[in-house]
Amino acid sequence: MRKFLIGLCVLSLxxxxxxxxxxxxxxxxxxxxxDFVDSGSVLALVGGVYQSTPQSITDGDVGPFQVDSNGRxxxxxxxxxxxxxxxxxxxxxxxxxxxxxxxGGVYTSQTVTAGDTAPLQIDxxxxxxxxxKGTAGTAAGGVLTVQGAAxxxxxxxxxxxxxxxxxxxxxxxxxxxxxxxxxxxxxxYGAGSAGSADAGVMTVQGIGSATPxxxxxxxxxxxxxxGTITGITNTVTVTGxxxxxxxxDQATATNLNAQVVGSVAxxxxxxxxxxxxxxxxxxxxxxxAASADLDVxxxxxxxxxxxxxxxxxxxxGAIDVNPVANANPNTFHYQIxxxxxxxxxxxxxxxxIWVGDCTEVGFWITADETVSADDCTLAVTVDIxxxxxxxxxxxxxxxxxxxxxxTSETISxxxxxxxxxxxxxxxxxxxxxxxxxxxxxxxxxxxxxxxxDVWIFGRK
Length: 460
What we know:
By secondary structure, the chain is mainly beta. It is 0% helix and 20% strand.
């Protein structure tokens, strides 16, 4: 028997040598169990054979070393023993004695079929990729779960936008437990369609003697309800502020349009009903007419809140002379102009006044001037009409002119001015049924202006 010493490993080779073989360590030939001298003995260079289909040999036969197509020696691991890192299937592993082989993984994407081998998968940083064997959302032993430990740092779970989207199926629902109200802020959507009867529609129901449900509205502190609220058949109790009332705030009148219905129908008994306080629109000029019959219109009053009504034979848009309460019903006295004439407006006209049933009509003007350049004046004129539309210049009388008819009067300082209309006789102008007073300022501006107050008085 002879041995070749190859590298640092002793491999047993079985071959036949002539009987005259002589050991020569300087030529790389050794007898069995001969000593190897470091830095002195010679090593024999040996090779192997590459066979795409390896040969089969029987027990005790000689065979060449097997190499692959690149000349690398093929080695088959046959067993494990103490100190080795290779184990047979189902072989025992001994704690603190068995060795571990350092292994690596591959960063790639691959697909293998059943029964194939594959390297461990790692990411770009070398970290091992671990995936559960089960199906997420389905009860299975291979599904990975994460469980925190008491008094440890909480497991952080979230989407990229610092939120967490939870999809649930079935009817078991999702239960979330939080420490305080500030720990859990969620947007909850019902599964049904709003306004349609459906088991998935979410409803909010209070509990008797419990704290009312608080509804927080828009960012401006208000609650906007879009659409029409229908289907309310029972009494709805709304709890408002601490005083027990409900305050509704709106920016403008167009933000809150409510229909108020009285408690008593037409021709019904209203003895115990509290009256509703009403207000009128104050106008010193005639309001524009409604565009059609049955349109809703405002109730018209003068600046003192006295309702303006038509007298007999009056044309639409004119003011009747109303008797003063608690006075002689045949006399009248009320304001027809209250205006400041400065840069704008510079003139003012009263409404058309019905005087067709009057026997005496006079006007009282109070002019209060604010002076800067002291060059502002007022011109007083009168218009008359038969229909409150087509006009003529009227005449009037004053104290200074006595019996001389005037067509205009100039006021240039603070004071009172009184004039009256000719209501009959040769100097009258036919006793026109409508009259209008006009006042125009000259040189009026923000620093020179007049406050003008005009009243009508007379007798029917």
